[in-house]
Amino acid sequence: MKRTRRLAAILIAALLAALTACGTQNGSGTAPETASQAAVSEAAQAEENGSADGSAQAEENGSAEGSAQAAKTESAQEEAGQAGEAGSAQTAENGPITVMDMTGREITLEEPAEKVVALTASDCEILYAIGAGDALVGRGEYCNYPAKVLEVPSVQSGADTNIEQILSLEPQVLLMSTMAQTEEQVAQLEAAGVHVVVSDAQDIAGVYTAIELIGALMGKDAEAAEVIDGMKSTFADLQEKAGEGSGKTIYFEVSPLQWGLWAAGSHTFMDEIAGMLGLTNCFADVEGWAEVSEEQVLERDPDYILTITQYYGEGPTPEEEILGRSGWENITAVQNKAILNLQNDELSRPAPRLAEGAQMLYDFVYGSGD
Amino acid sequence: MLEIKKLTVRFGELTVVDGLDLTVEEGQWLMIVGPNGAGKSTVLNAVTQGVPYTGQILFQGQDVRRMKSVQRARCIGMLAQSHPAAYSFSVEEVVSLGRYAYSAGLLSGRGDEDEAAVETALELTGMREQRKQSVLTLSGGELQRTFLAQAFAQDPQLLLLDEPTNHLDLIYQKQVFGMISDWLKRPGKAVISVVHDLSLAKACGTGALLMDRGRCVARGSVSEVLAPERLEQVYRMDVYAWMRGLLSQWS
Amino acid sequence: MRTRSDRFSLWEYALFAGITLAVLCLCVCVGSVNVPLRETLTAVAEALRALVLHRERPSGLGAAIILSVRIPRVLCVALVGASLALAGAAMQGLLKNALADGSTLGVSSGASLGAVIAIAFGVRVPFLPFAGTTAMAILFAFFSLLIILGLAYRMDCSFSTNTIILIGVVFSMFVSSLMSVIITFAADRIQHITFWTMGSLQGKNYTDVLLTGAALLVCGSVIFSRWRELNAFAVGEDNARHIGVNVRRVRLLILLAVSGLIGVCVSVGGTIGFVGLVTPHAVRLLAGPNHRRLLPASLFGGAVFLMLADLTARILLNPVELPIGVVTSLVGAVVFVIIFYRSRKRVKG
Using the beta-carbon criterion (under 8 Å), do A294 and C202 form an inter-chain contact? Predict the structure, then answer.
């Protein structure tokens, strides 16, 4: 069963990639860089996690595959004092910094980076969260949080990434994920002396690793640790309050019905957080993001619906749109009007705001009274 | 029957036909001859409104430009030079298309008159046996006869032929010209054809028009137009000597 | 050689309708969620009774799935399939080119560009909430056709296979880069645009059914009434002129009808490739090239083909849905190569 599902995930990821790539035939063009790639990457990520059994993140971090591996220098680990987590950096005052990025490449900086270009929205968020936002000199096209990031010049994303512009910004470090960039682009940047660092969080533990990694690069280990602790305590708090949970089910809607119903399945941040809050993801049998059958949503009858559809201030809001869907009037969530719309990627990005998103979901499900 | 006045056709900068005048009367078979690029086929295309032109083309006093396509097709038919086929229509289907100009309503089927016209055309061209055959499987000669049958089924008063025997075997050349001669014997018919083969022009034509670089060099009876000095002027060679030389091989 | 009569007999039409109806029933009865046959039938019967007697529509999960999800979707799919196949058949006849189709010519890409512009800049028609996308899709489909055919005509004064395919590819690329440009201007709507371009037949309601049905009725009748002219074009455009077809007017009329069909289909279901290419070709092998037979047969064939493709997309990886374009393209690509190979061989031989 699991095997077939994984096969399905691979197939869909491949098909989506093919659809995106040969856009001429399907009219999709080169455009769908972000969302479809996100979908593909989610599927692919889910796949990767699936192979590592997904349950134990620490195990994955420590796995021999070297993905998301962190270089450990004993002293540094002691210094950082991050129990249980793989430290990702060796930090020494005024000494060279050596880190292992999340694809296992080793990067050595003479001193903390002062100028950084970050191509993914999540890395931008992490930089701001650890107080290193001022070092950001260039951003990917789709980085949009916090609002301040929009003042930073965009260097485009994906295949359109403007390498010349990046070089002209003279960063010491370029942060990116595994999906968006080509190897040629990486080679060009490295040849020009830019350190390319890959952050590629697949789950919440991966997010911690990414924060630590970026903290080390920026010489902000303490701040990074603080952010991680903040997240951990929020999650722990929510998990404790939620307890065993009510066994209620939730349906995560990634794309509305009008454009084809996409749901977040297992091995997504939404799924992981649902588990933390004692909720059951109704599409846990689906890997990553996938287009699911509308009939299945009706049959699985979720108690809650969370949609991340954007609202542009015209027509019905995403909540209203779901309430108005024909045939959906039998769904418990629709009858109870238990629909939450998170507009700002709180639960879809590997960034510190996952904790905020989790809090919002908790408040929505259990009430914010206590 | 057909009167062309000051016909001029330009493709961009290039003037293909330059102020041509021409008349054809009932029972006539006008042969348009001349070297390659003289604008012969373009004259025919102008008559069927296939190219933009200046000047006037009158059919029985009526401006052809102002005629509806269907009305024009009932008066003037045309057999093109080649007929590249893409789909496997049957011979009969192609021949029936000749009755398009007579189809009354959008949904009405073929009437008895249409059936009869198609039968006669198939009969005249000897394509009756192959009526169910796909046009994709026909030889060049059969294909030419099929489209000739279509033109006969169309039953026009004036038939335009663009090199009707191009690429055809001698046997087919003879057959096609024979069929057209028979057809011409009916009352109220006339033919204009563009031909390369001067001997055929001489044998079948009742009148001729010699063209060179878009202009009319000579018009009148066949023997007048195809006089040795005229041909030499246009073809820049002694056509008579060449023809006699060819024929002498056969004696 | 088999003899072929000009038109289908009544019983042949009954057979086609029967097959289409059977496939339609199959597609309504089978789906992602297993609804028992008895419940399906009851739901449909009650819904019909409710429609006639203005009573309450039946409620319950099974009824909701059948009446609100499956039936509108299957009907939409059938109408879109029929429209695309009809549009393909008309284009292949008009251009005398068996490889002509909305997707190979780039008309579908053009239509999606229109729809994307409508989504990106919020183009709307007053009082009709979703008509903006549809209207823009139709408009762009028509202008794409004009541009493509205009270019093809200027290049070699004909619609030969090579020119058509070449221009289709170039145009599609051009359109997809335009789309990228538009997306740069409307980065905030990237989510909608991306999911839209992937195409989906989910969430279709009876309004979509009516819209597609109306388009098919209007544009379809235009095309059907021109079967004679289409035959003439399929034999050759010059020949069509010689036998008295008003070439320019008929061509414009048919292109308008085709754009209407493709535009509506794209706005309803995204770009679904190959249906319009493969169906008429397969039908031509069985029913011959005469449009009096080809058009109605393509209509039914397209509906059946797309309904089966959609069924596959719905149930193959249950509960995940495959994009329908993937299924049609998988089948279509193979057939496309076969057609191209055969047409090349014919030219050489």
Answer: yes
Is B100 in contact with C232 (Cβ distance < 8 A)? yes
CATH fold of B2-86+153-248, please?
A: Rossmann fold (3.40.50)
Distance of CA B123 to the CA centre of its chain: 20
B215–C contact, CB cutoff 8 A: no
DSSP symbols for A221-241:
HHHHHHHHHHHHHHHHHHHHH
Share of chain C above pLDDT 90, in %: 30
Contact criterion met (CB below 8 Å) for B101 and B73: yes
How much is the ipTM here?
0.90
Our CA-based measurement puts residue C221 at a distance from the nearest CA of chain A, in whole angstroms, of 28
What strands, in cross-sheet order, belong to the sheet with A97-100? A89-90, A97-100, A106-109
- For B40-49, how does the pLDDT look when each residue is reduced to its tens digit (9 = 90+)? 999 999 999 9
CA distances from C246 to B52, B62, B110, C238, C292 (A): 15, 18, 20, 11, 19
Q: Which string of b and e fits B85-117 if b means at least 16 CB within 10 Å?
A: bbbbbbbbbbbbbbbbbbbeeeeeeeeeebeeb
Topology given in CATH for the domain delimited by C10-348: ABC transporter involved in vitamin B12 uptake, BtuC (1.10.3470)
E strand map for B41-189: 54-59, 62-63, 76-79, 158-162
This prediction's pTM: 0.80
Contacts 24+ apart (CB under 8 A), C40-44: C40/C66, C43/C67, C44/C71
- CATH number given to A66-238: 3.40.50.1980
Question: Is C244 in contact with B73 (Cβ distance < 8 A)?
Answer: yes
pLDDT tens, position by position, A123-143: 999 999 999 889 999 998 888
User: What does CATH list as the number for A243-370?
Assistant: 3.40.50.1980
Three-state SS sequence of A140-186: CCCCCCCHHHHHCCECCCHHHCCHHHHHHCCCCEEEECCCCCCHHHH
Same fold, A66-238 and A243-370: yes
Chain A (323-342) residues lying within 8 Å, Cβ to Cβ, of chain C: 325-330
Identity of residue C12: E
Tokens of C7: 């038109």
Counting Cβ atoms within 10 Å, is residue A243 exposed (0-12), middle (13-18) or buried (19+)? exposed
Contact B109, B68 (CB under 8 A): no
- The nearest CA of chain B is from the CA of C166 a distance in Å of 19
Domain ranges of chain C: 10-348
Instruction: Give the B window 106-165 contacts with C, CB below 8 Å.
Output: 106-107, 109-110, 132-134, 136, 147, 150-151, 154
User: If you measure CA to CA, which chain B residue comes closest to C246?
Assistant: B69
Contact A344, A145 (CB under 8 A): yes
